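Thread: quick sanity check before group meeting

JM: Hey all, I'm pulling together slides for Thursday and realized we never actually wrote out the predicted structure for the chain we discussed last week. Dropping the sequence here so it's in one place. If anyone has concerns about the input, flag it before I start.
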Amino acid sequence: MGVGGGKTALVSLAKTLSMAGHRVEVCSYVREGRFDGVDYIDEQRTNRLEADVLLVSTSSKMDLSKLKRKEIEADLRFLWLHGVSPITGMEGFDWSGLICVSHYVKDHFTKTSKIPKERFSVIHNGVDLKDFKPWYGLIRRNPYGIVFASHPIKGLDQVLRLIRALREEISPHFFLDVYGGYQLWGLDGPPVDISTDGASFKGIIPQPQLIRRLFSYNFMINIYDLPEGFGLIYPQALKAGVVCLASNVGGVSEVIQDGRNGFLLNWPSETESVLNEVKQRIAYLLKERAYLNRIRKNAMSYNRGWEEVARDFLYLFKSKAMLKDRP
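JM (edit): ok, ran it. Output follows.
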């Protein structure tokens, strides 16, 4: 069962577990049907949840009182935490475990909840490695291409300011492509208004298509002060060879290693100083191609796939089941 920004992770894990031979059902606000071996069920059409393992997934503000109204029969119950937004009612369940996407998320909830620390575990998300393999060496990367594929609150306004400055001060060839939409972000609203020369809104596209397009960009930039649980787009961008420059917030540093596979921007910080830092960094990287290529090579070595993530989940499930069965 899942809602919020962890949709991609939820779908990827469900598909991988199904491919490993497990029966998987996803109960959420979804179009019902069977996809990639996974049964998707409309949450509003069922009042009973029955499983060996119940995994409740959320990365946004969530009220678990609705879950209380359902009849639940499960040997094990886990809460999958993708972010640090408040979750109403999370302490009202006897969780077998709480799975955090980063140590940052774990540290937050061990400090702010009354749930025993030993119930918390950390399992980092992964990428669909097979989506990357066909494109290595086949797509020309534009040195001036910048991509933004996050929620707008993660610095879209600052990146639009940056693209204007880069085009004026360094090269008019810089451009920005923005992916996403309110259907994905979980908000009601009009299409994103991007009225900046060199910027284009590409909307929502399937994950395999997004992965393919990532290979054509040189940089990904996110400048924001919000706590980031993990940032699934970062390992995807790294694996595709995109050089990421992102604010050092939340769990971002557990993915991006400053000066090795990308760059962490100072936080907290004044926006103008960060914009100047990014401009100077990009100008330097375009001149020092050997250094840029070394960063890119390190980034593309990111190799944590969803198969490895699924094994970590299964190991946790089995270990908790063994503890439960002890006399």
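AS: nice. The first helix runs from residue 7 to 19. The chain has two domains: 2-125+305-325, 130-300.
JM: adding both to the slides.
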